[in-house]
Design brief:
eight-stranded mixed β-sheet, 8 helices, Peptidase_M14, 10 strands, 31% helix, zinc, M14 family metallocarboxypeptidase, Aminopeptidase
Length: 308
């Protein structure tokens, strides 16, 4: 668990960034891994078993990224829809690879019972830079609204719109990392001209339920399954995680739609955001991926057993 300095090397304290500062920030971002070799190649191998579609295109300067989704090949209009999203924050690696592993290893277990729609890497530019924001220094996971400023988010909303009111479950796969505190929250404060206020990074897995439509038993079913794979984040001394009260073991709540979060883009009764902690000394990358897969499977199993 990390503590970060208040200083950020771009901009002037107390003054929101303009175009000059955003350009300076962008100039500091470098490509560190390959969306094509690590994500698109995996999706391509799944093409013989699923319907694979390009639902959009992201252009960033000279770079071009197809936005890809995986669907059940036996899609039936009489079946409930389950949506799995990963990589909304591109640096949250297990969200991407957990979604891909679920599709590869478990999705066919649900054939004939649900229609699956998986968007494993919503923000490919950020995936390659291991960053939270997109190329415009915008957080896609605060942009899932009609007037949102992130094309990644708008493209996903267009993909989901036809099944928005038919979805039974939507699980959005995320991570909380030490770099949230050492880089991304200080950058956010600098970008917005606000003071940086340190937080304690929780050590372990937790979930974010919808405060406007909570389903505690669903969230707890997911927690119980994930606990077999990795540890659950305890509350801090104030009974909170990242400033939000613990409402059940390993569960906090946000108003998903109000905040423009990905998990709020459908009318699904069962909605949640997973948060894995990959920087823990008690977790490996393989465990983090497995925790995401366990969460997805447990969520679908609960939703099918308890149709709302």
């Amino acid at each position: 668990m990390s503590t970060a300095p208040a200083f950020y090397p771009i901009g002037t304290s107390g003054i929101p960034w303009g175009e000059v500062e955003r350009a300076e920030w962008l100039s500091r971002q470098s490509r560190q891994r390959s969306y094509e070799s690590e994500v698109l190649s995996v999706i391509e191998r799944l093409r013989s078993r699923f319907d694979v579609e390009q639902y959009g295109h992201l252009g960033c300067g000279a770079e071009s990224y197809p936005l890809m989704a995986i669907r059940s090949c036996d899609w039936r209009d009489d079946l409930p829809v389950v949506i799995i999203t990963g990589g909304v924050h591109g640096y949250e690696t297990s969200g991407v690879h957990g979604a891909l592993q679920f599709a590869d290893r478990h999705a066919e277990d649900y054939a004939g019972r649900v229609n699956l729609l998986v968007a494993p890497c919503v923000s490919p530019w950020a995936y390659e830079r291991i960053h939270r924001w997109n190329a415009n220094a915008v957080d896609p996971n605060r942009s899932f609204r009609q007037d949102g400023a992130a094309e990644e988010s708008l493209a996903l909303m267009r993909l989901v719109e036809p099944v928005r009111d038919r979805a039974l479950m939507h699980m959005d796969l995320h991570e909380t990392t030490d770099t949230d505190e050492s880089e991304f929250r200080p950058a956010l404060a600098a970008r917005d001209g606000k003071p940086f206020e340190p937080c304690e990074i929780p050590d372990g897995f937790y979930l974010v339920d919808d405060s406007d439509n909570p389903h505690t038993e669903f969230q707890q079913a997911v927690i119980e399954a994930v606990e077999k794979v990795t540890h659950i984040a305890p509350a801090d001394a104030n009974g909170e995680v990242l400033g939000s009260p613990i409402v059940a073991r390993g569960v906090i709540q946000y108003p998903l739609k109000q905040l423009g979060l990905c998990a709020g883009i459908t009318s699904a009764p069962y909605r949640t955001t997973t948060e894995v902690y990959p920087d823990s000394t008690r977790a490996t990358p393989e465990q983090c991926n497995a925790a995401q897969v366990a969460a997805v499977c447990a969520g679908i199993d609960y939703a099918l057993a308890n149709p709302a």
